[in-house]
Amino acid sequence: xxxxxLVFEAxxxxxxxxxxxxxxxxxxxxxxxxxxxxGLGLWLSQEVLDDGQRQDPPDDFAHIFEIVLANYDLGNxxxxxxxxxxxxxxRVRSVDHGAPQAALQAGDQVLNLRIxxxxxxxxxxxxxxxxxxxxxxxxDSIDIDAAVRLQVRDGQLDVELSPxxxxxxxxxxxxxxxxxxxxxxxxxxxxxxxxxxxxxxxNDLRGVLVxxxxxxxxxxxxxLAIDDQFGLPSVVQGEPxxxxxxxxxxxxxxxxxxxxxxxxxxxxxxxxxxxDQRNRGSMARVGCAEGPQLLVxxxxxxxxxxxxxxxxxxxxxxxxxxxxxxxxxPPELIGDF
Length: 337
Prior knowledge:
The mean pLDDT is 85. It is built from five helices and 17 strands. It has helices at residues 46-49, 61-70, 180-222, 309-321, 331-334; strands at residues 2-11, 17-26, 30-31, 36-45, 81-85, 88-96, 101-106, 111-128, 131-153, 156-160, 166-171, 174-177, 227-232, 242-256, 259-270, 282-283, 303-307.
């Protein structure tokens, strides 16, 4: 099984000799198409998830997530009517804040996500109980902690996040009317109901965050699946590349404090397949060492990608069926031969 070489030598009756060497690949099993179970593995250490540093270009997931948050309208998290408290209805007019910060920490089968939104200023309209005025709810920050769990379903990575997995803390909240007179006359009243407003906002944010942040995380982590076409450069200068498609389906995810291990079912083929002769497919790994082929991911580096023999064979087979070895040989390539 594997690579083989046949050597034919002959000599005629007057002493002329001839020699032919032919190589071929052979296996007792062939695979017409993928994907191969556990064909590709990916290891992402804690350093890749979040190295605690923010420098360009981004080199970890937490930094990338911060960039996504910076372009996301966080005003969607706090909007509309906050509620009625002791006869005073409070509505949101505007939301302003500093640049969000994000951190990711791998745990035991969980990704702990922390988001800090600093310098929060929420413009409010308070009406009722002889009050009808604008004011500002300020807070040092809104601190969000979420325990994110990942599951694989039908080849897709699902983010599991519920309100019970999210904790929201609005730090050092205070309210001030736009009018100095109102602050003197009624500031005490609004500040007396402020803890109730803050508590309701924190509870509402838990549900909103699940709906808003969950899909962002799912899209970001789902992008780890590979579905890319790449070109193998032709051995003849000026000829087009041979196009190979490598694709994966999520199979398993394992998270520990050291990092995250992802296993994929994976396959590869040429695009398009140029050769039309019938063949049995790429060679399967058979009779190599003892026992079945296992996908072993060491998990010792910052990031690792591991391909099984079957997937490597499929990539090479795709190069062949894509015509990578089918080309015209110009005289300059032969030289003086």
